Amino acid sequence: MAGVDASSMEEDEHKPRQDDSKASEGQPAKDEDDRAPAADWRHAAVEQAIGDIQHCDFVAIDLEFTGLFKDGTSRKSTMELYYDHCRDSVPQFLTVQLGICAVKRDAEDPNMWVLSPHNFNAFPALRRVFLCDTSSLRFLRRNGFDLNKWIDDRVEYARLAEVQNAKESYLASKLMPQAVMDSGLQCVLECIIEAERPVVLHHGLLDMLHIYDKFIGELPRDLGAFCTEWLRLFSGGAFDTKHLASQGRYSVLHLNHSRGSTSLDDLRTHLLKQSHISAFKIATARSSSTYSLERPHEASNEHEAGFDALVTAQIFIIELELFFRAQQRATQTDGGPPQKRQKVAEGTAAEGEEGEPEGAVTEASSGPTIPLDWLSSSLCHRFRDTIEVSGVPPGHVSMAKHLKRSDAEAPAAAADAGGAVVAATSEDSVVDETRGWREGRERNGSRNGGRKRGVGGDARGGGGGLGAK
Question: Which residues form a coiled coil (predicted)?
């Protein structure tokens, strides 16, 4: 901080401020020079995102953080140890941006997809002490992130459990700004849960953990409990574009003809060059309508969360098209061994396989390239709720396989009984933390006016869910 006099900083720091000395972590710091942000445009932005989610086919999500891991490492020998490592680090860092892209198939052209991207500067409503990784800060700055804008144009958030508690407790309501309770950023996640929309991410486990920790409640103690909770809440299913790319790297996406990278930027650049029929347009009057749909490298927006969410949505649609077309081609091919046709259809070519395998699709076809009922297809069942985790054996998390035995049948039973957000685990603090939100939503009804499937839902989701896995 060159050029700043330390004594003046110290003097300014100790100027008397209204109730500031009483503020502690988890409470609002009431500062006349730093009042809660006005609700006008922030409320409108949140409501617009909610409206887009309520009418979309799926939602792509991306987040930006102040750091990843406290010790700077991510390699672990098992997925359970990796989760423990993440659970130790995720609550220590902040989510500074939340990007969503609500995606809807055009009513007149089934191959046209309307993208509605939204970018929010996420800021905790209650006082927080958090960690910053200098490497992450340099990364954010290199990609145009503005810390001043993050504070000035912030959209505040709280955990859903905290909001519900504030609505039902006079003492708690004194700590929670009314604007946050009415239209905080957590309302966007609540809408995704209530609307049962599929969630699409890229290499998304850390994003999922931050979503849960920042907007829902304390992270469950172990991987099995987290998978149970996520499947209860996000019953629309989750898809990971990096996992689809790893499964169809050579036989479907033909990444053997490029660098072979499945990073977000490289994957988009490669797929936009592939022969595909799916087309995109950005919905009008969106705050992020300046995003480019075609340019492979958008230096000014790259790694802004809203733009990355849009890129994730584009990648997912093109991946789906290529997988469905490859599957269709394989089933229509008379010649060739059945094993080969099956491998092409499922995108399970061996690592390093060269050439363009039989069944690869390069020509255009008529009609919808992605079935209207794509979510209930066997192909999507195969990828649903399976999240890529590079460098940790076996390389992905199949969330259904990590459900605890005692919890495996709980979601269906919960649906019949009226539901419960949290599985019966030994971690009573998580149960207590989310109980208020659950019970409050059941008494008062959901934001959409119906019963929350995420609260009393089936972890297997709609359309057959995980049964086909």
Answer: none
The packing angle between helices 428-444 and 160-168, to 10°, is: 60
Rounded to whole angstroms, the Cα distance separating 19 from 319 reads 54
One-letter amino acid for residue 19 of the chain: D
CA 466 vs CA 236, 274, 316, 377, 393: distances in Å: 11, 30, 19, 11, 22
**What's the total number of domains in the chain?**
1
Reported confidence tier of residue 144, pLDDT bands at 50, 70, 90: confident
> CA–CA separation, 306 vs 290, rounded Å?
11
Measured torsion, CA atoms of residues 164, 168, 174, 177, in degrees rounded to the nearest 10: 30
- Domain assignment present for residue 464? The answer is no
Bridge partner list, 282: 115
Q: Which two tokens stand for residue 231?
A: 């499947």
Q: Where is 117: in which H helix or E strand?
A: strand 112-124
Specify whether the backbone of 173 is left (phi greater than 0), alpha (psi in -120 to 50) or beta: alpha
At residue 255 the predicted structure's pLDDT band, cuts being 50, 70 and 90, is confident
pLDDT at 336 over 70: no
Instruction: Write out the residue range of the structural domain in which residue 388 sits.
Output: 41-285+300-332+375-401
Q: Is residue 468 part of a domain?
A: no
CATH number at residue 243: 3.30.420.10
In a domain, 205, yes or no: yes
Is 413 within 8 Å of 226 (Cβ atoms)?
no
Q: Residue 407 corresponds to which amino acid?
A: D
Longest distance between any two alpha carbons in the chain, whole Å:
82
Q: Answer for the pair 411, 399: CB distance below 8 angstroms, yes or no.
A: no
Cβ neighbours, 10 Å, residue 108 = 6
Burial tier of 262 (Cβ tally within 10 Å: 0-12, 13-18, 19+): buried
Which residues pair with residue 65 across a beta bridge? 95
Check: CB of residue 123 under 8 Å from CB of residue 156. Answer: yes
Radius of gyration of the chain (CA): 23
The whole-angstrom separation of Cα 324 and Cα 336 is 19
Q: pLDDT tens, 191-214?
A: 999 999 999 999 999 999 999 999
- pLDDT reading at 466 higher than 70: no
Instruction: State the average pLDDT over residues 136-153.
Output: 87
The token pair at 51 is: 């409206």
Pairing mode, strands 279-282 and 238-240: unpaired
Task: Calculate the alpha carbon distances from 172 to 157, 192, 304 in Å.
Answer: 15, 26, 34
Distance CA 446, CA 449 (A): 5
Claim: this prediction has a pTM higher than 0.90: no
Residues paired with 81 in a beta bridge: none
Kindly state whether residue 139 falls inside one of the protein's structural domains.
Answer: yes
233-238: average pLDDT = 97
